[in-house]
Each structure stands twice: as C-alpha cells, then as structure tokens.
Amino acid sequence: MTRVREDPAHRPPAWAGALCGGAAGFAGLAAATLAAAFVRPEAAPLTAVGGAVVDRTPAAVKEWAVRSFGTSDKLVLALGVVAVLAVLCAATGVLAVRHLRAGCALAAAVGLLGAAAALGRPEAGWRDALPSLVAGAVAASVLYLLVTALRRPRPAAGRPGGAWPMDRRGFGRLLAATVAASAVAGYAGRRLGAHGSAGATASRADLVLPPPAVPAPPVPAGADLEVPGVGPFVTPAAEFYRVDTALVVPRVDAESWRLTVHGDGVSRPLTLTLADLLARPLTEHDITLCCVSNEVGGPYVGNARWLGARLADLLREAGVRPPSQGGPADQLVARSVDGMTIGTPVETVMDGRDALLAVGMNGEPLPFAHGFPVRMVVPGLYGYVSACKWLTELRLTTFAAYDAYWVRRSWAQQAPVKTQSRIDTPRPFSKLAPGPVAVAGVAWAQHRGISRVEVRADGGPWREARLGDADGNDTWRQWVWPWEAAPGEHTLEVRATDGRGDVQTQERRGTLPDGATGWHSVTVSVHA
C-alpha cells in the first residue's frame, strides 16, 4: 500500500492543535478526578504534582510564598500547576497535528509524570498512581481522536483550495462535545469524592465533646483591652492562621480514626480510638500557637482554648520515660494521615506543661482545617516541631536516628518560641491627626510569659506600656501605650521582656532556621 504524504498546505493550523491538546488535557483531568474518587483525594494529579512541588521547593522559596500570599499560597500553587499543565497540553496538541504519535506519546508521558509524583508522596500506595495513569491514557486517546478527525480529508469539491481538512463549524461541535462530556465526568468525580467525605463530615457534626476534667479558668476580664485595631484575645477558629503543606485538607472519619503509640522505650504499645481518647480525663488550656514562618510583626500567631488529653500521661501509660529519667528516646515523631512528620523533644512534652492531644478548639470539635479529629498542641514550641494536625501515629525515636519533614528541609531540630511583640495599631504608613494616639498590640513568649512591654518613638527613651491581664504563661498578652503624636514622620518600636526577665533581642534575623528575631516597628505620618 502506498502511503500518501500529507500536504502541508492542508495541515490544520497550530491554534487548532492547541485547542485539541487543551481539550484532551481537560478530559484527562476529568477522568482522573473520577478515578481519584475511588482511591483518595490526595491521589488526584493536580494534588499529587502540587505536593511534589511543595516537597522539592527550597525553604527560602517557601518562605517567600508564605510571606507573599499568606494562606492563599496553596491556591496560587494550584493555579501555577494548572497554568503549566495548560501550556504543556497546548504544546502536545501542536505537536500532534504535525506528528500524531509523538503528540499522543507526550500526553501519555505527562500522565506517567503525575503517577510518579503520586507514588512519591508520603503514605502513597500503588493505587495512588491510577488516577494519573488514567489521565494520561484518556488524554492521549482523546488527542488522537480529535487530531485524526481534524486531519481527515473532506471531499475535494467541498474544500476550498489550501483550507485545512475539517470545516471550523464541525470542529467546534466536536470540541464542544468533548469538553461537555469531560465536564460531566469531572462533576461526577467531585460529587463522588464529596460523598466519600460525607461520613467524616457527619462524624464531626455528631461529635459531642465531654466536659473537661480539668477546666481552664475563665479568661481574666482585663485580658482583652478592647483597643480598636487589636484583634480579640481569643482568636475565632475561622480567623486562626493555617500554614501547612496539605493542598487538600484531609477529612478523617472520627469512627475509623486510630492512633498508635510505639517505638523506642515503649513497653506497652497503644492503639486508641477517638472514643478511647474521649474517655480519658480531658484538660482545657488556653495556648497561643505561632508558626516558625512568622516574620517579625507577622500574622501567623493565634490564641485559642484547647481541649484534649495530656500527652505526657499517655506516654507514661505506654511506659515511656524522658531522657532525664533514663529513657532511650529523645524525639517523639508525630505522623499525620497525609504522611507529614513532626518531631518534638520528649523531655519538653513530659516536663509538666500541658502538652495536649487536642480534640476541641474554642468549645467546638476541631475544624477539619485545624486537624479534626485529633492534633497535637505543645505550648512553648513553634508549630513545625509540636503541632501535628490530623494525627495518626506517635513514634518514639532519637534526633540522631530520624529527621522529620521540616528538619530535612533545613529547619532546626528543636525550636522553642522566641519572645516577640507586635504593633497592631496604628498600621504602617497610617496618616494620623495630632494628639493622643493609642499604640497597641500583642506580645508572646509561650511557657515563659510576658512581664513587660516597652514602646518608643523615633529612637527616644523606652516607655512602659500597660499590659492586659495575664491568662497564664502560655498565651499572648495585649498591651497599649498612650502616645502624644506631634506633626511629622515618626517611627514607633516595641520590645517585650519575658517572665524570666530576658529582653527581646534587637538583632534582626529571618525565620530560618528556628524563628525570626528583632523589634517590630511601624512608620506613620501625623498631619495637622
């Protein structure tokens, strides 16, 4: 059989190939969404690739993303992955109208790349590769069908000289049908996925928290100074910061949740259900949490009332002894359902502070975004070494034997919270009227407490601010200083002294490797 060479003059234009590639990519993603509904949400290609990008991004770039986009960093990442994928799909379509097999092979290869990313995620199993493999197969097949139809010659009498084979109206109908079918498949996948998490949603809605055996005392009436511009003393759950690597918030069914405790020095390994944990004596404690990514004056800090079981009691029940008492393990590695690992010093957890396996936040079950059904909360440590969400495993080991997720990415093994203070009002670059101005904010040094806050204007003498009442040593304190503002440009600075008498350092350092230091300052203008 003689093969007829395609006339380049009748080859479909590049833009038509790009549309074929985009439609094929959309079909592949829709099919993968449907497949992921039967595996797990984290196995979806966009999530798997996004997670792989997060894991391999240098710490400095992650810090820049958190500073620049805040809690929207994951949305920005997802949009970036989609943009790159869209360009790649368009390129496969352009290649396919010239070299059909090569274009389809490239589409399938993209699916293989997604499968590799899925298999490289923590806690991944072989089934996690299936959605990406389905995406590659469907994308390659749809691309082949679209480009083949596009290149199929029309009768010579019906084709103007030099025009591409398929008329534009027919191509539009074919493309629209492909996109519509893909949209239906994607919608079905999302609905099935939502149905799969319905049990988790219902389990949280049905959960009734028992009263604490050790209730927290009421927040002192003078803890909240109620200065306009300063947030409430207790941060609402909806406003509490969230910094983690989970592109898809895990939705864990409380009925199926289990916690295992094992490892070095554990003489009695434990496996607990949520009912087992709730049957233990629960402690209520007000604790301020702070992210190590929080820059001087940054927003990644919040205060809440937590309810949970004391972690030290659970470890002692498992036979664990701290290193100071001869225990072989100095690190407690907490593992999340999504594979995240966080390493906490055993000595710190068992030194008498209220380190909790928290089940409640501000009187309600934990929100999904903050770790439902169970998370760790350890006062005095940055979250990346203490506050594992969606907790499922506690393993006793040593710092020498194992590096947790963030330590492998250049962060310090151990990170007690540094003394920090922040000016919340006036805001930077505010334009103020002359006269009395309330300069106010918060200061924190968890597990040491705040004993004094001082403020100064334009490098002048330090003036002591009025502190809100203390709610223990594990929460922040509000403060306010009355300033008589005169016309001109002014710089306001704040520093705090912790409960041990140590003054916050002036040395300015970034967040890596164990938290930022320095005095927070704002510049304002006063006009008559």
Q: How large is the radius of gyration? A: 29 Å
**Mean pLDDT, rounded to whole units?**
90
Residues in helix, %: 25-40%
- What is the total tally of β strands? 19
Count every helix, treating DSSP H or I runs of 4 or more residues as helices. 11
3D shape: globular
Oligomer: single chain
Strand content: 15-25%
* Secondary structural class: alpha+beta
Low-confidence stretches: 157-163
User: What is the N-to-C succession of helices and strands?
Assistant: HHHHHHHHEEHEEHEEHEEEEEEEEEEEEE
**What is the end-to-end distance?**
92 Å
Biggest beta sheet summary = 5 strands, mixed
Q: In order across it, which strands form the biggest sheet?
A: 2-1-10-5-6
What does this structure look like?
The chain is globular. With 528 residues, the protein is an alpha+beta fold. Helix 5 runs antiparallel to helix 6. It is built from eleven helices and 19 strands. A five-stranded mixed β-sheet has the order 2-1-10-5-6. The longest helix has 29 residues. Helices cover 31% and strands 22% of the residues.
Give the gist of this structure.
The protein has 528 residues and is of the alpha+beta class.
